[in-house]
Amino acid sequence: MPYCSHCGRPVEETDLYCGSCGARQPVPERPAGPFASISSRNASLLCYIPLVGWIAAIVVLASQRFKTDREVRFHAFQGLYLFVVWLVVDWAVGPFFHFAGEVSQVSLAAILKLALLGTWIYMLVKTSQGVTVKLPVLGELAERSLAEQQ
Ligand SMILES: [Zn+2]
């Protein structure tokens, strides 16, 4: 049970004012920001939502709440790089294979995108189980990014 900050008599945790002397009691501080009430695992999961996870990743990386949480920041970086790969597939692979003909262009981009979608879903499942999966290349990049910020 907490005690009054003014007179030292016991007060209830929920009391805003002391019942004995009427002094206002200090309010327990809560971390502010968009992730104030979200767990580390859920924040990590958000970073792997296909196509929109990068938004969560950027918010995680910018937030005070996870500034020292290497685990979540790793997932944020990895989720971000996954989206970069998606963009590269979307923008670069198409035009590059343009000369090879319409059909192969469409199928190559489609196969790569399916693989990326599969990776996102795989990461969602693994992260929800509390398993940290380090993807080839992207995981390395994520760890390097983490180290650079320390
Ligand atoms: Zn008091």
Report the count of strand segments.
0
Q: How many structural units, i.e. domains?
A: 2
Gyration radius over CA? 23 Å
Shape: elongated
Helical content (DSSP H or I, runs of 4+): 55-70%
Tags for this model:
single chain, 150 residues, mainly alpha, 2 domains, 0% strand, elongated, binds zinc ion
Q: How would you characterize the overall build of this protein?
A:
The protein is mainly alpha-helical. It has 2 domains: 1-30, no CATH class; 40-149, no CATH class. Helices cover 55% and strands 0% of the residues. It contains 5 helices and no strands. Helix 1 packs across helix 2 (53-62). The protein is elongated, with a radius of gyration of 23 Å. It starts with 39 loop residues before the first helix and ends with a helix. The mean pLDDT is 87. Bound molecules: zinc ion. Zinc ion (ZN) is lined by residues 4, 6-7, 9, 18, 20-21, 23. The site of zinc ion has 8 residues, from loops.
